[in-house]
Amino acid sequence: MKYSMKPLKYLSVLLILPLFMSSCDYNLEEVSKDVNNPVNVHPSTILTTLCINTFGIEFYGVQPYRTAWQWDQRAGGGHFNFLRRNFISEYRRIAWCYDMCAEADRVGDERYKLLAAYFRASWMFTTTRLFGDVPFTEAGTGRQDDPDYFPKYDLQEDIIAALLDELKTANEALAAYEGTSIQGDIIYDDIRQWRKLINVQRLRMLINCTMKETIKGTPVKEMFAEIVNNPDANPLMENLDDSAIRHESGNSENYNYYNDNNFVSSYRVSKYIVDYMSERHDMRLPKLAEVMMCLEDTGADINDFSNYKGVIPNPGANSDNNNEDMDKGNQSKLNRKWYLEPQGPDAMNIGYPEQEFILAEAALRGWIDDDAETHYRNGIRAACEFLGVSDSDINAYLEQDAIRLTGTDTEKLGKIITEKYLNFFMQGGFEAYFELRRTGYPDFSEYLTRNIDNLYNDGYLPLRYQYPQSEIDNNNENVVAAINRLDKGDDRNSRMWLLIGEDPLFNPDPFPFRYTE
User: In CA terms, which of 58, 392, 443, 474 is 20 to 30 Å from 35?
Assistant: First the structure.
């Protein structure tokens, strides 16, 4: 792995450094400084940049939501073609975390170092879930430009354990700074809210380990319960306002990320979303999709669910039905707020609704002594409130038999994860995909016609991306060691550590067909 991660270089395009002229007399050293390539930047600038990249859609864009079947192209086709991809961009952001720590030391503000723990955990946890074992302890060490620098690949279990420890330490240390705000923070106005976010990240990481009994010998459920059962030491989010919401008012650049003609010409909401929400009279649907194209600008009632129709993403024979609908305009685009408004909608990649769905699942599994349905309903209500659904419509939705948390434990898990999936519509990055991979929910089985086609991975849900070719070429010894730890080698169907094991609540009829051969 030959990194070229110069965070200050990448950040320089974002910086304007004022030159205060107090005298006309300069020495050679002063006039030789390149103000466009600063040697130091205030950590607040790096914090702002990390917030923009982590809590918006800038990095991963809209493709993860196609992977999770929230939308697809107008003719369908599914997005299962997981092959090789690079991870240098993830590591660039991880390197920014190290630079924020260095700059924090320079200006003498420990808070930036503690917040860097959150961002590093967020990006590292996503990276290891996409690939498996990845560089960690030797990544971002400052030797990126050394031609003989080839970092080892750490075990996924070791990475997760270390990140959990770092987040625990950051949460405890930030307690001394509660009531303060920090320069460069565009998400929160109080350090206590960062503590809540850090603890939700810890819960997110642990709930991803439902196929594992222990992490480095410590029971997963005990680690989870330790956080939840001590709210004084581990504050959690109390309402939607505690969420890490990236508000877009005043952000002149946001529209550029959504200003894509494909939203109009090609992207369509999935049939699963339309059918599920229509059957349950879910008033989030008009917030997520437009009426069918043939009804646009006709005054069609947006609250009439018969006016919506989704596209079938499945690459099997059933996708042929999309062609007729496409020709007749019987397909619904994604809501125009993503492509016609001056600014795109606010983003909530991690927040209170997700926390409540995590707690609901933990209660269902017996990890905590709490009421699963209460947390489940809290999550639904907050997810609906975020989209602007009225209280009366939320109450009506919650009182339906199809929504109540009833049935077997596996069926209850299906309801929890499906609502979590809906909360992640066009936000959350790869989280909806990770949940589908982990639990088998939402259950898309009735929309499936298995297609034996290598392009679509023979109908299976890919479990990982293959390692970058640059790693095969330049860091072969270390990446091969990681590949040899995978059950099927460097294959998109190989099981990483997180996915090895059994979960008694896993969907018995999952989408796609569970790959066990």
Answer: 58
Residue 359, H or E segment = helix 352-365
Mean of pLDDT values over 120-147: 86
- Separation CA 312–CA 325 (nearest Å): 10
Using N-to-C axis directions, what is the helix angle for 352-365 and 191-207, rounded to 10°?
Answer: 40
The secondary structure of 174-239, three-state, reads HHHHCCCCCCCCCCCCCHHHHHHHHHHHHHHHHHCCCCCCEECCEEHHHHHHHHHCCCCCCCCCCC
pLDDT band at 463; cut points 50, 70, 90: very high
- Which element (helix H / strand E) includes 91? helix 88-107
Sign of the alpha-carbon torsion through 417, 422, 427, 430: positive
Radius of gyration over every alpha carbon of the chain, rounded to an integer in angstroms: 24
d(CA 20, CA 30): 12
Report the C-alpha dihedral over residues 187, 189, 192, 193, rounded to 10 degrees: -30
Cβ pair 494, 488 in contact under 8 A = yes
Compute the distance between CA of residue 154 and CA of residue 160 in angstroms, rounded to an integer.
10
> How far apart, in Å, are the Cα atoms of 256 and each of 66, 244, 266, 288, 428?
20, 21, 18, 20, 19
Instruction: Please give the C-alpha separations between residue 456 and each of 98, 429, 435, 441, in angstroms, as whole numbers.
Output: 38, 21, 20, 19
pLDDT in tens, 172-216: 999 999 999 999 999 999 999 999 999 999 999 999 999 999 999
Tokens 């939607």 belong to which residue? Answer: 240
Cβ-count burial 179-217 (b if 16+ within 10 Å, e if not): eeebebbebbeebbbbbbbbbbbbbbbbbbbbbbeebee
Q: Say how far apart CA 120 and CA 90 lie, in whole Å.
A: 10
> pLDDT by residue (tens digit) across 476-510?
999 999 999 999 999 999 999 999 999 999 998 77
The structure tokens 């609502």 sit at 419
The dihedral through the CA atoms of 368, 370, 376, 382 has a sign that is: negative
DSSP label of 469: H
In single-letter form, the type of residue at position 394 comes to I
* Chain position carrying tokens 């319960």: 225
For residue 459, the 8-state DSSP code is: G
Torsion of CA 113, 118, 122, 125, to 10 degrees: 90
Which residues are paired to 292 by β-bridges?
332
What is this structure's pTM? 0.92
* pLDDT score at 14: 43
- Which residues are within 8 A (CB) of 299 and not within 5 positions of it... i.e. 6 or more apart? none
Alpha-carbon distance values, 41 to 4, 34, 140, 274, 430 (Å): 19, 13, 18, 48, 31
